[in-house]
Design brief:
The protein is an alpha/beta fold. The chain is built from 14 helices and 6 strands. The two termini are 38 Å apart.
Length: 311
Amino acid sequence: MRHARIYLDQNIVGYLRDGVIDFSRVTGIDWLYSNEHFNEISRSGDRSFLEVFKKLKAQFIEIVLDEKLRITDSTRIHPYSCPYKRYEHYIDAVGEVKIDESLFRSFLARLNGADNYGDVLSVPEKLGLQIKELLEPIGKWDSETAEAVGQVSADLDKMIRAQLSKTRPLETLRKPLGTHKRIGNPKTDSPIAEIWELVSSKANGLTADQFFGFNPLDKQGYDTWPLYLGIIGCYSTLNFIGYRTDRNIASEDAVANIISDAVHIAHGAFCDGLMSEDRRLCLKARAIYKFKNINTHVLRLEIKKLGLQPN
C-alpha cells in the first residue's frame, strides 16, 4: 500500500525551515514539491528551502508533456533525489532560454485594476524583441518570421489601446456580474456552483466551464484544455470576481506570488492532499476541487491556533 502523497505549499516549507513545525516523526506520507517551488526560490534567491526537501526526503512531482511539449493531465512522481542537484538542473534549463516571465504580469495587474497603462503598452515591443532574441541565434529569424511577429505585436498593441486604455476598478467590473457585493460566505459546500447561479444569466452564453477557465473558447492548439491550466485560469477568475480575493491583486509585484499560488493548487490536484497555511488559498482550492470533483484533501495548518509563532 503506497503512502499518502501530500503537496506542500511554500509557506509550510518556510515554517519547517525555521523550526516552527517539525515533520521528522511523521510517517506514512510522501511529501511532494515541484518546479514552482524552484521558481519561488529563484525569485527570492534563498536556497535554504532546499534543505527542507532534503530532510523530508521529499519527492518531485512533474506535469507530463506530450511530444509537442503540450501540458497533459498526467503527472510523474520521481523517487527522492538530491534537491540541490535538481535545483541546479532547473537553473541551467531555464537559463538556456532567456524568457522574461514577468512580461505579461502587467496584463494581469491591469485587468485587476492597476494604473500601469505605460507598462502594458510596452509589452508588444518587448515581446517582439524577445522572440527575435530567441530565434536569431539558432538561425530561425528571417524576414518572413519578422513580418509575422511584427503583425502579432501590432495586433496586440491595437487590442491594448482599444480595451485596456482606461483604468477600471474591480468593483466597477464586478458590478455587471452582481459579484460586487460580498460573495465570500457560500451557503453550501460548492461556492463555484453558487457563484454560477448568480452570474450565469450575465455570462453571454458561456457554460460554467468556459466562464471559470476550464474550457476556454481559444484552446491555443489543444484539443482538450488540460485540468492543470483550467485550475490556474479558475483561480484567476475567482480573484477577479471577488471570491476570497488575494491581497494587492492590482500590484505587479504581487502577481508572481498569486500565479505561484494557482500553480501550487494545480499540482495539488494530482495528489492526495495539499497543505498550506494560507486561508485564501485553501478556500479557493477547496472550491475548485469541489467543482471539478477532485478528491484532493485541503489541509490548512493554522500556525497561530496551534500556539506556534513564526520567527
